[in-house]
Input
Amino acid sequence: MTISNARQNSDLDKESNLKKIVIAVSAWIALITAAHLATNVDWKVLLNERLPESERKLNVAYIPVT
Amino acid sequence: MTDYISARSLAGHLFIPRLFQGFPEIKEALLSNQMQAAFMVAPMAIALRAQGVPVKIVYLGHRYGSAVVVQKDGPVTSFADLKGKTIAIPSRYSDERLILFRAMKVHGMNASDFRLVEMAPPDMPGALHAGAIDAFSVGEPFPSQAEMDGYGRVLFHAKEYWPDYISCVVVVRQDVIDSKPEAVQVLVDGIARSGLWLDNPPKRKERREHAAEFVGRSYFRQDQRLLKWALTNPDDRVLYQPLTPLRDDFDLITSLMRETGVLDREIAFEEYVDPQFAEGAKYQTEWRYEPGDTEAR
Output
């Protein structure tokens, strides 16, 4: 193996490692975003707010006390 | 409860329930039209209307369900022992404050005999346990929490000094009453049906235990055992009918509000109550739903 071939292989390894890191980080961000959207966003409320005024359901406030 | 059962019916969700932690926040959300309806303490609703806020009481949330709680092994064993003590209340505009004034009169005491502090209801049991307050006056399940956890004792239930006691009422913005009366009626009908379902004598215990489970998990985010305690120890600790707003009940509240300085003018029943929806719900029947059913009607 020549010196130039060895450099080329090392560059390829670096590129492949970088790609793996980008994929892993993207997957992690997607997972956290999905979990956030599922647990912290009240879709019922959001969808209701997008309906025309006449079709919207009433938002009723309550507190955990009788 | 109404939301849970109605979601299983053909009608589907009747409204969108939104959890808050205190009455002042509910008031703000109602004023800004983030909320179109709300459960709130009756004096606060009346005071809002007296201040010109366009809202009306359309129904009651429940009857009874409030108590004054003291430390279990503390020095307070009678109402007279509260002299000089610090008592927490949820708001100066609450029936839980008014009940103290009613009891005070019976025992020949006056307002300067104790110190009232406003506190969010969920903070009260902890404050009592830590000795930061000597007593609290609030709705369930917080009296039950202090009892169940072993450091609190109910000094008296509100109904002992105030028969037919009411606390939470259903308040709706006037613009919603005018533009969507059918939606308000559906909401009130749903609450009426839930009340009948919860109070049905032969099935009351079983249904209340079931309600404690799903309300604790999905709505109140509280220990289900606590709600079970509050709803069944005894099973008339909180009642869910009759829920029609009655003039005599509210005349008593407004006169107490005037006496205790939280209402600065006379206000007619018709000015703050819209009885049409309670009238419309009069012939409703309980939900046809039993624990374990997947469908309700």
